[in-house]
Amino acid sequence: MPLKVQHDEAPSLNLTPMIDVVFQLIVFFMVATKFTELERDIQLNLPEVSQAAAMTAAPKAREIVVLADGRYLLDGQESALEEMTSLLAAAKSEYHGVEVVIRGDATCAFQHVASAMAACQKAGVTELNVSVRVAGASAVRR
């Protein structure tokens, strides 16, 4: 019985789709370059201002530290929960996106941290972070 010898074709790579994509990108960048040239050609007198500065700078995050004995520090100053709530509400009225970071001592009761979170909620703060240390690491992370 004669054996049939079959020759398989060697695999080939079809580069046509890749070439199409490259040509599309070239056309896109050529058209985008034309738009910027048109904008430069427009004669326009822009209004002038005496000073150019940001209207308001975003304040840094407020920090609440809950000590082991249950005392609270708001930005390094000791304050009661009610006082802290009013200070945070005032900060919220000045800058709507005020951010608060709560750092609780590992040995304090969680109730103190929860009370600080409730004070933030009562003040209307929505950007709230709790700072913890990753086990085995020496740096504090948020």
Task: Tell me what you see in this structure.
The protein is an alpha/beta fold. The chain has a domain at 62-135: Nucleotidyltransferase, domain 5, CATH 3.30.420.270. It is 38% helix and 18% strand. It contains three helices and six strands. Strands 3-2-1-4-5-6 form a six-stranded mixed beta sheet, with helices on one face. Helix 2 runs parallel beside helix 3. The protein is flat. The N and C termini lie far apart (78 Å). The mean pLDDT is 82.
Name the CATH class of the domain at 62-135: Alpha Beta
Shape: flat
Mean pLDDT: 82
In terms of DSSP E residues, the strand content is: 15-25%
Count of DSSP helices? 3
Secondary-structure element sequence?
HEEEHEHEE
* Radius of gyration of CA atoms, rounded to a whole number: 31 Å
Query: Distance N terminus to C terminus?
Result: 78 Å
- Order of strands in the sheet with most strands: 3-2-1-4-5-6
Question: CATH fold name of the domain at 62-135, please?
Answer: Nucleotidyltransferase, domain 5
Percent of residues in helices: 25-40%
Largest sheet: 6 strands, mixed
Class by SSE composition: alpha/beta
CATH architecture of the domain at 62-135: 2-Layer Sandwich
Low-confidence stretches: none
| Total E-strand runs | 6
Task: Summarize the SSE layout with pairings.
Layout lengths: L15 H26 L20 E5 L5 E3 L2 E2 L2 H14 L4 E6 L5 H14 L3 E7 L6 E2 L1
Parallel strand pairs: 1-4, 4-5
Antiparallel strand pairs: 1-2, 2-3, 5-6
Helix pairs in contact: 2-3
Provide the descriptors you would attach to this structure in a database record.
alpha/beta; 6 strands; 3 helices; single chain; 142 residues
